[in-house]
Amino acid sequence: MPTIRQIKRRITSVKSSAKITNALQLVAASKMRRAQDRATQARPYAEKLRVVLAGLAAQPGGDEEAAHPLLVNRPAKAVAVIHVTPNRGLCGGLNSNLNRSAVTFVADQKEPASVVAVGKKGRDFFTRARLNVVASFTELGDYPTQAETLGISRLVMDDFLAGTVDRVYISFAEFISTAVQRPVVRQLLPIEPPPAEEAGDMAGVRQDYLFEPSPAVVLERLLPRFIEMQIYEAVLESAASEQSARMVAMKNATDNALEIERELTLTYNKVRQEQITKELLDIVGGAAALEA
Amino acid sequence: MPLTVEIVTAEKVVRVEQGVEVLIAPGSEGQLAILPKHAALMTTLAPGPLVFRRGQSESEFVVMGGFMEVRNDRVTVLADAAEAAEEIDIARAEAARARAEERLRRIREQNVRDVDLARAQASLQRSLLRLQVAGRKRRPGPPRPGG
């Protein structure tokens, strides 16, 4: 049986843990809201780009544009994976789920794979696993801007165009809801244009629209933007996922701490009562002995 | 029916302007004036000023290249970056210009020829454009004729 003082000390410590996790939970909740807002704000641009691209790609024009280098599907000899993770921990199973999903994907590749790590947790994991980390970007904050992600796009597009890699994938945490984030791996390069159904009212654009300077030039300028936009979206989703995972993890931690505190308080009261009873018995026993 | 113009960047919807009578845009092949009932158009944009005109009043944006779609009196500008003239950070643009000029000077002196040259020139061009559009906005006087 622990002494009263020991129990008291544990109660204080559990209480202060609960205070900290509760504060972290509140911070994560407000950051999550902002991260989600940013993801929502990026959507109109992304949707428009997708629609235009679907419309343009649905009807290939002359030979010269069918051969746009970012669309070319070469036999794969080397692949690259952009692995987006948080910089920090304390977000439940998010980091280990992400790392597991990415490492499984890399292990499944028949070709040599290199990793572009975005975020410290993924970089550290792949470095420790002695896998080929060719670049890392760890300076993205809680609210990454598009400009900050352009370096990543530049790097993978240059590698792809130079023929260093033949496939580029991106692994990130898809934000499904506050409670659910799913690690996913998607192909970035070569670009697989969105299906024609997504073209909506852009279907048949080539007949209806004037293009300036020409459909081929518009497509050529559109494709790099498409890659940049997909990477930016992935980074935004990851940021929102990180904050919501942290919020949920910290909420659970707070609940657990409060539960432990309740149990400890119960024990504390019991021990205290027993001690008082014992002391009373001693006194009564002593008095009885004197009278006798 | 007047035009509805939407300026969108990768980060957010910058502005939705309704009731625009004339839109002057920096097309990559030269300036374009879009009037209501324009044919469906898809064009690339160069960095430059984007001007909305309604009767006598004008408002101006600076866009850094991108795309523009015109269809059924709806214009969507997908810009790489866009700012309203009155929101341009002049101090920042001045600093960017000084930096770019300094870099260009060093490149010329040391006679290095690489990507840096193109980058410095592009950034000089962007800062000058911002200053130009912002300066025009702030200068008092009657609205200028023409675009």
The strand count of chain A comes to: 6
Q: What's the CATH topology name of the largest domain in chain B?
A: ATP Synthase, domain 1
Number of separate domains of chain A: 2
Percent of residues of chain B in beta strands? Answer: 35-45%
Number of helices of chain A: 8
Beta-strand content estimate of chain A: 5-15%
* Count of distinct strands of chain B: 8
Radius of gyration of chain A, Cα only, in angstroms?
A: 29 Å
Biggest contact: A-B, 27 and 24 residues
Label the overall shape of chain B.
elongated
The CATH class name of the largest domain in chain B reads Mainly Beta
Gyration radius of chain B, rounded: 17 Å
3D architecture notes:
- The complex is a heterodimer of chains A (292) and B (147).
- Helices cover 62% and strands 13% of the residues of chain A.
- Chain A has helices at 4-41, 43-58, 63-66, 94-108, 120-128, 146-162, 205-208, 215-291; strands at residues 79-84, 113-118, 133-137, 167-175, 181-189, 210-212.
- In chain A, α4 packs across α5 (120-128).
- The longest helix of chain A has 77 residues, at 215-291.
- Chain B has 147 residues and is an alpha+beta fold.
- In chain B, 31% of the residues lie in helices and 43% in strands.
- Chain B contains 2 helices and 8 strands, in the order ββββββββαα.
- In chain B, strands 1, 2, 3, 4, 5, 6, 7 and 8 form an 8-stranded mixed sheet that branches.
- In chain B, 32% of the residues are buried.
- Chain A binds chain B through residues 38, 41-42, 44-46, 48-49, 52, 145-146, 201, 205, 208-213, 217-218, 221-222, 225, 228-229, 232, and chain B through 6, 8-13, 27-29, 32, 39-44, 66-67, 69, 71, 76, 78, 80.
- β6 of chain A pairs parallel with β5 (41-54) of chain B.
